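Duplicate of #3305? Posting structure anyway:
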């Protein structure tokens, strides 16, 4: 019977020790010579045999499955479990069972040498596995029941290894070390060669953009505060810095690779995973660039063999050390980041490129756009056609020559675009991923060419990793907005010139209304323009340059630039819909006023007076709404932006004494 027991414990049941799927290995109940206490002791041993048989079934079912998939793709695994990490887990599990197999062989030799040994000796010899097997079986059952996949297997093993039983902890740490071997191989391929070897989607880095977060709760109360549609929810969003359009406008640019956070083990921090992602993306960019080696050399400075040896050294360690792991990742990342910094700042002259972005996207060359607006006004004030884009670019070149901007290397890299009905059909897919030009200038979509005007800048390698198409489209949003403010400012100045030409004529009550309304409109627009160009653009740009000059790390530059762009969108109120909508309404009213003044050669007729009255009331209403919004949130955490504009508009308390309205006669 002892040999029957040893065979059963080895996974080969017989007549005395029977097997069924539900209860596992058990002593047969038809044996009259066994005392109940002996049956109890034997059944205790049978639990080990049951676990061992189930372990071996799991190993046989899943070991080598990844390789078999290619040859038997029409016979998928019934459990749905597959992958290299699962195979590594099975390999580690099999090595954990080796001491148990050896113990059975030793018992067989001992019983052959001394036939008087009892079952108690078997119980004594195998007692060390009585705690181990059930604990490991919990891990196996968890993987099977929850269909745990890829790097999540490491997380499951790690969590179960954090117990107080040394044998269990040591066994699971050995299994975890085998799984880490797969991870280190994937890390070496990704970080040293830019290769993502992940056919079964097991790694914590994936190709394509990261998935968006959960949708915000749409059932928040929308109580009206009597502020012209400015609801309580919107006011709370301003006060809590939850910018309404932030997720849409400031979402990360569509990347070729991103983190698969659900696969990241908890003992590897997200900051380390982001460094791994950055290194691999940078290495792959160099590998894919046709003339990268001749132009920039190895991004790892030919230290690939050294880093591969360091990764192999970590792989051989019996226990995972986060400090050693992160130190190596930091070393590789700093090597890549410093090389990229040298390439971009020193060789590609990043500061000069940022100045170009500021001059053209952020209207830094104000004299250029002043001439351009005059030349293109008649082309873009009507709905665009197929030839509008060509004519606008000719006007842009003429404006550049008039202000002595004759850089033959720069101008060919700049191109103005004008969307018109039917263009999308002609150029399908030309601007995939670009944000449509909506909500970027006041009430002009899609009536005039100004609303669809955009600027394309051909970014040279390797600056394209900083100025991605999505980043340039965000610059385009700011460009259209700044251009609309600058354009209406010039129109109001032109109205002032017309009024000055006519001041010798006989004055009427209508002229007083026109002069006062124009003065109030110009006051608001001039302060808005000064706020945008000085308080926002110049301030943020100087901070960006300071941050770039204080580091030799490319990742720090990218973070500083992202922060700069997000601040532009936030502080110019493009993301704050209540403020942005109100400012757009004011700009539209100013444009309609300028149109009325330009058409008014003789005194206004009855229809003109009615239109002027509507414009005055509209401007008064919108200026009151703007003042109310700015006043209500100036004491909140967002006051650094809104309060600065309010300070410029109400520096002498005239706005306050007027009841928060402008345009009153």
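Output from current build:
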């Amino acid at each position: 019977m002892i040999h029957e027991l040893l065979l059963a414990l080895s996974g080969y049941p017989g007549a005395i020790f029977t097997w069924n799927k539900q209860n596992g290995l058990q002593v047969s109940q038809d044996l009259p010579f066994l005392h109940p206490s002996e049956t109890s002791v034997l059944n205790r041993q049978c639990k080990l045999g049951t676990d061992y048989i189930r372990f071996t079934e799991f190993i046989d079912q899943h070991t080598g499955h990844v390789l078999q998939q290619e040859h038997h793709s029409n016979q998928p695994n019934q459990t749905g479990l597959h992958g290299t990490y699962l195979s590594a887990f099975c390999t580690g599990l099999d090595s954990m069972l080796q001491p148990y197999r050896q113990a059975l062989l030793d018992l067989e030799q001992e019983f052959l040498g001394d036939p008087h040994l009892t079952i108690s000796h078997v119980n004594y010899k195998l007692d060390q596995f009585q705690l181990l097997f059930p604990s490991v079986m919990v891990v196996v059952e968890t993987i099977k029941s929850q269909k745990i996949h890829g790097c999540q297997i490491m997380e499951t093993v790690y969590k179960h290894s954090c117990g107080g039983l040394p044998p269990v902890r040591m066994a699971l740490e050995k299994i975890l070390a085998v799984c880490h071997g797969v991870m280190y191989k994937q890390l070496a391929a990704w970080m040293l060669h830019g290769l993502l070897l992940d056919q079964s989607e097991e790694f914590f880095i994936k190709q394509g953009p990261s998935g968006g977060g959960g949708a915000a709760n749409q059932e928040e109360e929308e109580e009206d505060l009597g502020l012209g549609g400015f609801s309580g929810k919107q006011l709370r969003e301003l006060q809590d810095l939850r910018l309404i359009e932030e997720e849409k406008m400031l979402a990360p640019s569509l990347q070729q690779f991103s983190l698969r956070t659900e696969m990241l083990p908890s003992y590897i921090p997200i900051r380390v995973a982001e460094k791994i992602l950055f290194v691999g993306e940078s290495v792959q960019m160099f590998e894919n660039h046709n003339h990268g080696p001749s132009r920039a050399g190895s991004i790892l400075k030919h230290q690939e063999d050294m880093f591969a040896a360091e990764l192999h050294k970590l792989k051989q360690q019996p226990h995972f050390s986060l400090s050693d792991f992160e130190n190596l990742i930091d070393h590789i990342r700093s090597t890549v980041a410093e090389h990229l910094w040298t390439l971009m700042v020193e060789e590609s002259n990043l500061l000069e490129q940022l100045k170009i972005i500021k001059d053209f996207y952020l209207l830094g060359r104000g004299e250029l756009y002043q001439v351009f607006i005059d030349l293109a006004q008649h082309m873009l004030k009507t709905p665009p056609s197929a030839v509008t884009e060509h004519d606008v670019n000719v006007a842009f070149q003429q404006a550049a020559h008039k202000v002595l901007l004759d850089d033959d290397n720069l101008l060919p890299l700049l191109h103005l675009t004008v969307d018109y009905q039917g263009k999308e059909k002609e150029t399908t897919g030309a601007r995939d991923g670009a944000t449509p030009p909506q909500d970027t200038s006041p009430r002009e979509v899609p009536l005039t060419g100004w609303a669809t005007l955009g600027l394309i800048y051909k970014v040279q390698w390797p600056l394209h990793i900083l100025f991605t198409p999505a980043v340039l489209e965000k610059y385009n949003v700011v460009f259209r907005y700044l251009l609309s403010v600058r354009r209406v400012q010039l129109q109001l100045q032109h109205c002032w010139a017309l009024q000055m030409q006519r001041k010798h004529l006989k004055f009427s009550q209508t002229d007083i209304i026109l002069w006062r309304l124009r003065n109030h409109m110009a006051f608001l627009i001039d302060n808005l323009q000064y706020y945008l160009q000085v308080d926002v653009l110049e301030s943020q740009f100087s901070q960006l340059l300071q941050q770039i000059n204080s580091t030799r790390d490319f990742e720090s530059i990218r973070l500083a630039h992202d922060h700069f762009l997000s601040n532009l969108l936030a502080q110019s109120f493009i993301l704050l819909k209540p403020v942005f909508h109100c400012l757009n309404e004011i700009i539209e009213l100013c444009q309609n006023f300028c149109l009325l003044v330009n058409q008014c050669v003789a005194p206004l007729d009855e229809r003109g007076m009615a239109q002027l009255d509507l414009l005055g009331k509209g401007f008064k209403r919108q200026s009151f709404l703007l003042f109310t919004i700015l006043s209500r949130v100036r004491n909140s955490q967002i006051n650094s932006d809104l309060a600065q504009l309010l300070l410029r508009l109400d520096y002498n308390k005239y706005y306050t004494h007027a009841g928060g309205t402008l345009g009153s006669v």
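Confirmed duplicate; merging threads. The mean pLDDT is 77. The two ends are 112 Å apart (CA to CA).
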